Amino acid sequence: FKENLPTWKMAASPSFQRLSRAPLFLGARASSTVSLARSDASQHKLSVLQRYPLEVNVLTNGVRVITQRRPDLATATVGLFRRGGSEQETRENNGISGVFQRVQQRGTQKLDGSALSSAVMGMGGRVSSVNERQYNGTLFHAPTANAGRGIGLLADMARNPLLNEADIDAERRSSLSALDAAGYDMETVMMDSLHDIAYQGTGLALSPYGNTAGLQSITRDSMQKFAQQAVAGQNLCLIACGDLDHAQVMEYAERELGSLSAGARIELPNTRYTASSVNIRDDDMSLCYTGIGVEAPALGNSDYMAMEAARHIIGNYDRSYGSDARHGMNKAAFHAHDHECRTEMYGFKMFGNYYATSGLWGLYLVTPLASQDTAVYYVMNEWHKLRNRCRDADVDRAKCDMRTELGTVAQDPTTLVQHMGRQQMTLDRVVPLHEMDARIESLSPEFVRACLSEYFYDKSPVYGLVGQTETSLEYAVLQRYMHRYRT
To answer: What are the phi and psi torsion angles at 179 (to 5°)?
Structure first.
């Protein structure tokens, strides 16, 4: 892997673009006022959504249809989601689901590529795709009047893809180029490496980008076989959001998808977490990229919200924050204020990935040469402090951030459909946003501390290193850090 940016540009790299929502140069009281004001606005937005309940029906062949009527939106989004992403693949065909998802958009047996593109543009719409570890999806966003025609296009792309050799070859080359480009994004490299060692021997270890051998092995015959198994009624879900009537959406779904065979339902397998480490040393790189993770609760677990609150409390940091200590998140303010700590790292970013039966929660860290061990010590110390002394003010700030994120999801139909599709494919149900808001409101410091003690304290982590790793912390020392400060 190569370094994607020179050292002096690291502060502006895409990996660390999530800056504080509060202005950096406001005082602490002003920052809190801005955060609380945004939280109140988001809470009002979420409470309004209770007037727009979800409506769910299932066709006779197993296709699930979910709509949320939103008269307040000028446009609509419909998405056709399919259960089973890269987790259902093997090392030999890793990447085939993503290629199939994009080949669908190159034409159908009714409309070739140019005709399909003209039809989408003529409706003032756009088509996008989602490719994740446990599901895939194709979304159509357009004015509300054209949503019905969009359902027909999505169904046609899923049921009757053209799958000619030229399109498959073009998408195979495109996927190989995307895989090569991902190798320059150290955050993507680290997350794929952590999944590879945390879930080794299971489907979650496979990257949605695929691997070189798997992508090169894709043929028209293998693609047709994959399509026959994957596109089945019991594995599909149609989700619509906008000023749409549920009965009308059901009529469109019955007409376009009702004759599809039910097929065999894809069951998401149980995962197995394995504590381990990986070290990819490259002395030509000037920085050390570190990833530390622990097994987290599944998306449907009640502890999921507490771990998300902990992630928001610790927050993110990079050197673009300068020396301003009046930052909303404790850890970032500490790094901005402490000169010694500030010189030990370029930035860090908390992450939380949650799946049907497991999750991965941890931190991505960028440090200069010979400072990795000290930076890890600072971060682990903060984790233990939060486990022991989580305050009401910390949880309130996390609630504000989480409500703001939910409010952002509610404002855009495409984002909302993606959110509902993820939950439906992972949990077999969609949790309404106002119910999630109630779960956020119920969080307490005691609950956050209890969950951190359950999933973090004295647990064996996964540990990834890329770059200048000669002086990096050994795994045995990191494991001892996991049970410090028992009181």
So the answer is: -65, -40
Q: Residue 266: what pLDDT?
A: 87
Say how far apart CA 192 and CA 449 lie, in whole Å.
29
User: What does the pLDDT read at residue 306?
Assistant: 96
Determine the Cα–Cα distance for residues 360 and 199; give it in Å rounded to an integer: 10
481 pLDDT higher than 70:
yes
How far is Cα 108 from Cα 167, in angstroms, rounded to an integer?
Answer: 11
Whole-prediction pTM: 0.86
- CB-CB contact of 330 with 390 (8 Å): no
What is the model's pLDDT at position 379?
84
CB burial of 292-318 (b: ≥16 within 10 Å; e: otherwise) equals bbbbbbbbbbebbbbbbbbbbbbbbbb
Question: Which residue did the predictor score with more confidence, 328 or 287?
Answer: 287
Nearest alpha carbon to residue 303 among 175, 403, 449, 405 = 449
Cα-Cα-Cα-Cα dihedral sign, residues 358, 362, 366, 371: negative
Query: Distance (Å, rounded) from C-alpha 406 to C-alpha 302?
Result: 17
Q: CA–CA separation, 35 vs 10, rounded Å?
A: 27
State how far the Cα of 163 lies from the Cα of 227, in Å rounded to an integer. Answer: 10
Number of neighbouring beta carbons within 10 Å of residue 348: 26
Residue 3 CB burial class (10 angstroms; 0-12, 13-18, ≥19): middle
